[in-house]
Amino acid sequence: MKENAEDLEKDLDRFRNKFHQLKDEIQKAVVGNDALLTETLVAIFSRGHVLLEGVPGLGKTYLVNTLGKVMGLQPGRIQCTPDLMPADILGTHIVNENEDGRRVMNFEKGPVFANLILVDEVNRATPKTQAALLEVMQEGSVTAGGETMVLPQPFFVMATQNPMEMEGTYPLPEAQADRFIFKIKVPFPDKETLVEISRRTSGFAQPELKEVISSEELGEFQKILTEVAVADHITEYAAALILATHPDQESPLEPVERYVSYGASPRGLQALVRGARVLAALDERAAVSTDDIKQIALSALRHRVILNFQGEAENRDIDELVKEIIDSVPTPGA
């Protein structure tokens, strides 16, 4: 723990400056989407993986590539297709000959052995291949042939996903989706943004991006952010939000009881608290408020609330349902 509040305040000032430098550098290449950039960086400083959802062509892949450049992270890329196999992601044992001419088994590492993994169109891979990412995302390691190999640190998975109504997509298993700290929707750009995109990309020159933060600095700031205080009543409010997503609770919200099969897991509570700490620091506060929890709740919960058959049949909008849940939970002291 920090010895005094002054030390923490200075550290948080350094964090805010670095955060804004990162955004400014990224926006040399990525046009608009200020809220998207903020939430993505909040996830990274919260030590979480990110799921980006949007139709093709919105720059999701370009955003991840840009992040790797400005954060000095070794990139890895996986393009998901229906014929992709788990070994294509994790790596596989191959037979080689050693100096003595004897055959030996060597492990050929897959693309997950990097710092920032772009899993492009993750829901175009089959469930078997999607499941290969479970250990990678939760444990930060790969087990093959009875041997466990630790992945480089820091380690982040940033997956892009097409909307489920598009052809050739497989829904992510609930356990897989739960490993992502946030699910962030990438909106279609407005007219002004489209015009600016045209201006920036109509030539052949690419923006020159510089590395703004090192992996060591990133780890340092992640530790500093854990010092942002979370009062008991804030944690209880976040827990009440999680419980409100479950239909089997006493006196559940009517739409939850009617449309929801499963609510958010304890990882959802962790996502709320960790994300709220970063938002509080960005707002020049050393303690989390309920507004921070509310601000991050939609991204933290939208992929953790699972509709039942009736909800699917009526095409119930998850975002609207989560917003109703947030509005239904009493705010402490209000």
Structure description:
By secondary structure, the chain is of the alpha/beta class. The chain has 2 domains: 1-201 and 211-227, Rossmann fold; 228-334, Orthogonal Bundle (Helicase, Ruva Protein, domain 3). It contains 15 helices and 11 strands. The protein has a 5-stranded parallel sheet with strand order 2-5-8-1-9. Helix 13 (290-301) runs antiparallel to helix 15 (318-328). The longest helix is centred in the N-terminal third of the chain and has 22 residues, at 5-26. The mean pLDDT is 86.
In short:
The chain has helices spanning 5-26, 34-45, 60-70, 86-90, 127-131, 133-139, 174-177, 191-201, 215-225, 232-244, 254-259, 266-282, 290-301, 309-313, 318-328, and strands at residues 49-53, 75-79, 91-97, 103-109, 116-120, 141-144, 147-150, 156-161, 180-185, 260-262, 306-307. It is an alpha/beta fold and 334 residues long. The chain folds into two domains: 1-201 and 211-227, P-loop containing nucleotide triphosphate hydrolases (Rossmann fold, 3-Layer(aba) Sandwich); 228-334, Magnesium chelatase subunit I, C-Terminal domain (Helicase, Ruva Protein, domain 3, Orthogonal Bundle).
